[in-house]
Amino acid sequence: MTLDDTWFTELAPEAGSAFSLKLEQKLHEETTPYQRIEIYATEAFGNLMVIDGFIMLSQRDNFLYHEMMSHPALYCHPNPRRVLIIGGGDCGTLSEVLKHPEVKSVHQIEIDERVTRLAERYFPELCQSNNDPRAKLMFIDGIQWVKDCNENSYDIIIVDSTDPIGPAEGLFSEPFYRDCQRILGEHGIIVQQSESPLYHMDILRNMYQAMRGGGFIDIATLFFPQCVYPSGWWTATLACKDQTLTTFREQEAENKTFETRYYNAAIHRAAFAAPEFFYSQIYR
Amino acid sequence: MTLDDTWFTELAPEAGSAFSLKLEQKLHEETTPYQRIEIYATEAFGNLMVIDGFIMLSQRDNFLYHEMMSHPALYCHPNPRRVLIIGGGDCGTLSEVLKHPEVKSVHQIEIDERVTRLAERYFPELCQSNNDPRAKLMFIDGIQWVKDCNENSYDIIIVDSTDPIGPAEGLFSEPFYRDCQRILGEHGIIVQQSESPLYHMDILRNMYQAMRGGGFIDIATLFFPQCVYPSGWWTATLACKDQTLTTFREQEAENKTFETRYYNAAIHRAAFAAPEFFYSQIYR
Fold this sequence. Notes:
The structure is a homodimer. The first copy, chain A, is α/β, with parallel strands linked by helices. The radius of gyration of chain A is 18 Å and the shape is globular. Chain A is built from 9 helices and 12 strands. The first copy, chain A, starts with 6 loop residues before the first strand and ends with a helix. The first copy, chain A, has helices spanning 62-76, 92-97, 113-122, 142-148, 174-183, 201-213, 250-254, 265-271, 276-283, and strands at 7-12, 17-31, 36-42, 47-51, 54-58, 82-87, 105-109, 135-138, 154-160, 184-193, 218-225, 233-240. In chain A, 29% of the residues lie in helices and 30% in strands. Chain A folds into 2 domains: 7-58, Spermidine Synthase, Chain: A, domain 2 (Roll); 62-283, 3-Layer(aba) Sandwich (Rossmann fold), CATH 3.40.50. Chains A and B meet through strand 1, strand 2, helix 8 and helix 9 of A and strand 1, strand 2, helix 8 and helix 9 of B.
């Protein structure tokens, strides 16, 4: 069958596949100095944000991505007080980070303010913590920000960006990781979305190489489902400044005082289990 | 954008979503007494089998499903010698099961012989073990087969069927599970594909209820990615006749003597980790 224009379709040309969502209506469309943003109401996935033709998030399933971008890294760190989010303009990651009472400050550096303003309007449930006194939202260039930061400025850096083509390309490069390594404090951890293990092993390989080149000691990948992203299977990759990522504050994760829909301590342990092909291609 | 008829598209109407693969050509199409089977060559997923409009498997990613339908159940059983596969006509599950040297016999009961004959032609890599002397392929009705079997006939039953609508509906029912429970030996385990945790929680709930009603003591669900199935996230549910599913032959899985692409001992442990929403809706 063919899909007409009552569907939003994202192609993954590199994999000859496509994912589509049935639309109710277009809610908004604009071109900012950085990108083209579209917002749709879908039939069954709630509101949908699309940037430059790529699905960013839906109301139905963004909890998977946002929980996995935040809680594993935060529980891997012994005492995460200072968090930097680069990108993350929809504020879903921010709202998860702020669930941790030990977090004292979060700087969110999103280059395009319009992403956040549109999230406030169309994804209000993700923006409820934007006025938390611990959160500071800045709309500037993340690569410049990490260049200018002092040593030991953050405990956790979360790179919640678009794909490594276009404006986000520099966020997957060795000079960027070297800056991140420098501005992280003791036991500091960076976590970054790292695409699909079924479609993008080349990106993952390059990222490992760049992170190692940037001076990180241990690197490990988390695997999780993400229906609206190409292949439906996604990863985030963690790198630690000075120790291995095999332990986490397990007891505290077991007894977490906030609600999640996907993450729990068992999921934390499970998400680090790598498929056999990943061992042979990356961890070998 | 719209997708024209150079794509095969499977709709998931219940979720307002669709997944599509770019085609090179149609290789075969026929209507059997049971269903309509189509085979396509895709641009990047190898050959594709479609039954009644639903994607059954692609050459690129079927390893995920077939490995997870076989190895976890087999390693959960202390000594799996006698295996029954119901459905599974493409023989991918069969070929994984036969990798276990401790397996002495496999009966595969597929209602539609044409599925197997077409798999032999278009998915030959899945059918290389079909002439293994331990394997017996029968093209008859699986529900009738389990009704007619004696007690203690099998150690493992793998239900590798289509969705619980149409011909496979009876394979998700309490009377069927009661027969399975009866024909399993000591420590016997059934494993069955159980749809998407994002789209089909109603099916999972009904399945748990029917399995419990059928007399199974412990039930647990495995989670794994499966790109070509709705939502890209899939499950298989295991049920054991007389004990819990928390242990498995871990050392033997660590030292397995055959190759896999997804499964390993860490993936085995990880796959049983349930998302928080699953705990509250199923395991509560």
